[in-house]
Amino acid sequence: MEKAIADWLLEGPTWLRYAVELQLLNKKPDPEQVVSDVSITEIISELKGVHGVPAIKTGAVSYKGNVYWDLFFLADIGLTINDIRFEQEAKSIYNLQSPDGTFTIMDGTRSSYFCIPTMLLSTLKKMGYSEKEKLQKFIQLIFQTQRLDGGWHCAQQRAVGHRLQDSESCPMDNLNILMLLGQFKEYREDTKLHGALDLLLTHWDRRDEKWRPYGFGIGTDFKKLKYPAITYGILRVLDALSCFPYAVEHPSFESMMEEVRGKSQNGKYYAESVVKHFSQFDFGQKKEPSRWITFLMNRVEKRLTSLD
After folding, report:
1. How is residue 214 annotated by DSSP?
2. What span, in angstroms and rounded, lies between the C-alpha atoms of 28 and 297?
3. SS3 sequence, 135-187?
4. What's the rounded Cα separation, in Å, for the pair 252 and 302?
5. To pair with 216 at 20 to 30 A between CA atoms, which of 33, 48, 52, 229?
6. Residue pLDDT, tens place only, 210-248
7. d(C-alpha 98, C-alpha 108), whole Å
8. Whole-prediction pTM value?
């Protein structure tokens, strides 16, 4: 990372400086300065409130709701469960696990839906919280339900032994599951994950075709830099894939990286799509360069350097 970009990032708000110092500069900043920031305090309060994590238990939240993505954002900053005093809320999420290891989290979802609980569990893991036995039980189920192409799909009729077993897996399922497994050293070079990685890489290669595995295509919206990537998008795909040496060495990964690098303006990146809920943050507007999205790309670049 160029010094000029590092200096520019450090001119950002407290929470962003914390992320840069912790994750890019290998320093140990004080998290108290972040959790006392008004914008972060508001997010933590919302997560603790009746429409936050407690609403997960009732199933009255949607995948596109704020709960998942507020927590996702705090984890990306580098805050831990202890930092935000969130132990009871984290425990309440794990308490939703059934004896067979599955989670049923939202209205209209079934225990076979791994996509949504994996999003939550990967976030909690990133924040330093996991109930080890429960998480390992869930991960065992992930591998037990792996499909013929090496990926995953929530629909039971697409499972091995069923009539649609030869169809493609779901890109979003693969993405969320890889986000979780990529946090474990033992899985980053596990050949059992090559099929899931290949689907995301091949999806990019075939972006100009009409091929849409489970309705997911790669077009203008996928290529837009946006945070959080509530929908299937290039920034989160690169973030997940960058944890796996097999993916990083693939020409398709480099092609995706070049697609994004081409959007850089003197080392700075702009948000190209925004989520209204995050309008107070720099990634919630398009007029000025976003320090946060610039940070995220530099974090990916740092991972690539460490793999080299």
Report:
1. G
2. 21
3. HHHHHHHHHHCCCCCCCCCCCHHHCCCCCCCCCCCCHHHHHHHHHHHCCCHHH
4. 19
5. 52
6. 888 888 889 999 999 999 988 889 999 999 999 999 999
7. 17
8. 0.93
